Amino acid sequence: MPSLFDRVIDRNNTHSLKWDAYPNGVLPLWVADMDFQAPEPVLRALRNRVDHGIFGYESQFNELRDTVVNWSWQHYHWKINPQDILFVPGVVTSLNLAAQALASPGAGVIIQPPVYPPFFIIAKNAQLELNQAPLSHDENLNYFIDFVEFEKSIGENTKLFILCNPHNPVGRVFKQDELTKIAELCIKHKLIILSDEIHCDLVYEGHHHIPFASLNEEIAQCTITFIAPSKTFNLAGLKCSIIISQNTELRKQIEQKR
Question: Which residues, in sequence order, are CB contacts of 165 under 8 Å at separation 6+?
């Protein structure tokens, strides 16, 4: 069987954000859009839905909820319940939604640059004060959290912390002790954590992703987790992502804003 790396799929005339941005001869590496086809089970499910021919309003996505619950348990030993899940169009949209739902204008939000550029806009969109706690690095560009600087970035009005784990773009999969220390500081200062974990399934062998909310029940109650199938299965164009909140009140606040 030939390697998928040997198969070239023509992206012309497909309204590809990645390939349409530059002229022929340029290899675009600026956006997370793989050139592998989606998995056959996904394509088969889409074909079956299209063949049905009716695309009316959907009812509850109970089967999809169960799939997310089972995936979280099987891959990360993280126990969540179907009612903890909300479906939204995308992780960036979801982060903006949550920031606006959970923090009032003038409150502070912490990010850890160098980080995914849309994180910088979330504060502006929600009229929040942007606090930066940059990651540190050694001479080999191995990035790590400076916990002293992180705590210094927390002001009197700081309400939110946006965690990116696995981190985009530095590629760090934060370890248990790092996450535990961050969790302790967040609890100490009563922060709500918005944890972008969209890259959780794309982790090199020898590393293991730990959902932030899985650390303990106390941190679960102040964490909103954001995941999506888009990076794992190359489905970004389908605009589907997932919010997980084990705190009923926080989840209701997001639902009301949605």
Answer: 172, 173, 174, 179, 195, 196, 197, 200, 209, 212
